[in-house]
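Lecture notes, structural biology module. Today: joint structure prediction for complexes of two components.
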Amino acid sequence: MIDWLVDSILVLALLSTAIGVLWSANLFRAVVMFIAFGLLMALAWVRLQAPDIALAEAAIGAGLTGVLLLDAARHLGYNRRCGGEGNDQGGASG
Amino acid sequence: MMRFFSVTVLAAACLAFAGALMVTVWHISGTQAPVDLPGLLVENLEASGVEHPITAVLLNFRSYDTLLEIGVLVIAGIAGISMAKTTSLEDPLLRTSDSLLYALQRWFVPLMLVLAGYLLWAGSDRPGGAFQAGAVLAASGVLMRLGGTPMEFLRPGVLLRLGLALGFSVFLLVAVASALAGDAFLAYPKAFNKPLILVIETVLTFSIAMVLLALFVSAPVNDAVEPEERERG
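The predicted structure, tokenised, for the full assembly:
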């Protein structure tokens, strides 16, 4: 019973984060959603009794890809966004 | 009207695809597999030199796949580096000089290095292995880079090339050596199974970490966008 509950919550969370990644207008929010999706996916692999893939997913899928995507999102943001927001970010990181 | 029509067609296509997928999955789950792979694996696990079935498959029974995977990874790393603006790699200017991050990294990096070593070693008899250890190693490198630790070896040069190519070349060397010695390509000699796998896993860990880190580092740094900002401001 509790297994079914955990699994169905996991599936719902995976679906909602996936939809969040695809439908979010803000790139930064999409990347954060993607990282959350990766971590949930790692949990799903654990539930499927594949701890090896879970480790790889958490480290590569969520961690390093997330970092690369964050980097890319920031650079895309500089070109796309006009006005104050980009300058704010530049001030904070520089 | 046109929009409504296309959305309907798209939805119908999605539904048809999902239905076909369900039927296929149902069909596959019902049929018996022609070869009992898990059974074969359990029977031959002792011959592989490691105790963990997944490591045995990745580095012994199907090591050809792993060899090609590493090749793909190295090519991706080289492509990433060559796409980078030349200044960003040679630029010793560091990304951030956040003191909080610097303090955190002093606690985290040693822990992560130990974890990477553990994952590498654990790969022989429980979940773990070269990919996971390499990813953790690369993540600690990313943390160090963000925290402002200079990493000279990531600049284009002999060390970077050696690091990128080490895993693939050692793997290939072992494969060719065993082929020359009379066995099949990539069939390790029985007596050296475990040491050979261990050596390959270790160099793979370093190379994977190097490729991932090089991909991160060759992304343009902050100053690459600063001129734009100056124009704007």
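Point to remember: The CA atoms of residues 4 and 10 of chain B lie 10 Å apart.
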